[in-house]
Amino acid sequence: MYNPGGMERILTEKMNYLADNLGYQITLVTTDQLNKPFFFKLSDKVKVYHLNLNFNLDFKKGIFKKYIHIRKKLRIYKRQLENIIKNSDIEICISTGGKELEFLSYLNSDCKKIFEAHFAKNFRKQFLVARNNNFKNRIIGSIRTKQLIYQTQKLDAVVVLTKKDLKEWKSTNKNVRQIYNFSSISGAKRIDGFNKRAIAIGKLDAQKGFDMLIKSWALAKNDLKDWELHIFGQGEWETLLNQEIEKNDLKNNIFLNGVTKDIENELLKSSLFLFSSRYEGFSLVFIEAMNCGLPIVSFDCPEGPGELIINDDIGVLVEANNVEKFSEAIVNLIKNDNVRVQKGINSYLKGKQFCKENIMMEWHQFFSNLS
To answer: Per residue in 126-170, pLDDT tens?
Structure first.
């Protein structure tokens, strides 16, 4: 929960709403907090347990040593989680896809067990392939996807983010429910669409595809010379992305700004939202951009964007990973003020369906039916 990502933000806001507005007793359990502070403010009503098992620290070890260490930690984790559930009288236990999925279905407890999927069904494969699309990673990724299916089939429910995810999961699981993410932005303010500034937000890693975004901008840098691109986020690719910016002589146009806690203000200062991910779940910042009235250029990556941009109504949907088409779409929108502004208005109006109160009532009804 020290990460500044959309998943951590939406989870924090869900827990806060359930505890503060609906009277739920919420317990949060982490395994890899590393003694770091929470990035987003969590309600004082939420009880927190940090188990400090730190699975992530084992991932770079050799295969045999990693296996031994993780198996040992899993036994400890299962025992500790069972004790917390029993002592806190937990009725519903929700996993967001961590190591607990390896034992959640046979946890020694009568509580309802749920997997809340923030990524596509094959996200484990997507994670590997985005870093190196070789034969080994494709095979391992396919095996990991099959493991995920097996781990979740006996749970009480799998909750997914999009209609496309729902269809995909239903091909293997009978326990699937779909609930969208909500936007934490009220939509009280809207951009005018004439600031010569584009924005992208996300972790600086392979998934978010900012390397492709920079290449797209470079292809049209003569047309975009009066515009700026501001990228917000942190991550392992910061050096690589800075090198790409320098290589293309874009230091005066593209800026890596680190993380921000005031996403709404940064969106409202912009006139175009650029979404270059190689894969996604249902991006929180995507719908927040809509709530601020930004037109969007997005790759049609799995999953999410194709469910929001219909017939290019709120922006332009580009073939996944097609850098040239992405560049063309940016240029077309910055050169056509009327088109850009109208798509922004469409985006603002469509964003209203993702308000927090409506989505959280879906969760409340779902929990009530489970109980």
So the answer is: 778 777 888 888 998 899 899 999 999 999 999 999 998 999 999
| DSSP structure string for 228-244 | EEEEE--STTHHHHHHH
Q: Is 90 exceeded by the pLDDT of residue 351?
A: yes
Q: What does R_g of the chain's alpha carbons equal in angstroms?
A: 21
**What are the tokens at 230?**
């501001």
Run of H or E including 275: strand 272-275
State the residue for tokens 């290449």: 215
* Residues constituting the chain: 371
Residue that wins the pLDDT comparison between 59 and 297? 297
Helix, strand, coil distribution of the chain in percent, nearest 5: 45, 15, 40
The domains found in the chain, sorted by start residue, are 6-183+355-370 (3.40.50.2000), 197-354 (3.40.50.2000)
* Contact in structure between 312 and 333 (CB atoms under 8 Å): no
Rounded Cα gap, residues 182 and 293, in angstroms: 16
The set of residues, in sequence order, having a beta carbon less than 8 Å from that of 276 and lying 6+ positions away, is 200, 208, 209, 210, 212, 213, 216, 298, 299, 326
Distances (CA, A) of 370 to 186, 305, 365: 30, 30, 9
Cα–Cα distance between 15 and 43 in angstroms, integer? 8
Opening angle at CA 297, ends 356 and 337, nearest 5:
105
Long-range contacts of 174-177, Cβ-Cβ distance < 8 Å, separation of 24 or more: 177/366
- Compute the distance between CA of residue 283 and CA of residue 161 in angstroms, rounded to an integer: 9
pLDDT digits (tens, 9 = 90+) for 319-333: 999 999 999 999 999
User: Is 38 within 8 Å of 58 (Cβ atoms)?
Assistant: no
Of the candidates 68, 69, 93, 67, the one whose C-alpha atom is nearest the C-alpha of residue 80 is 93
pLDDT at residue 329, as a whole number: 98
The model's pLDDT over 257-309, given as tens digits with 9 standing for 90+, comes to: 999 989 999 999 999 999 999 988 788 899 999 999 999 999 999 878 999 99
In angstroms, the CA 232 to CA 202 distance is 6
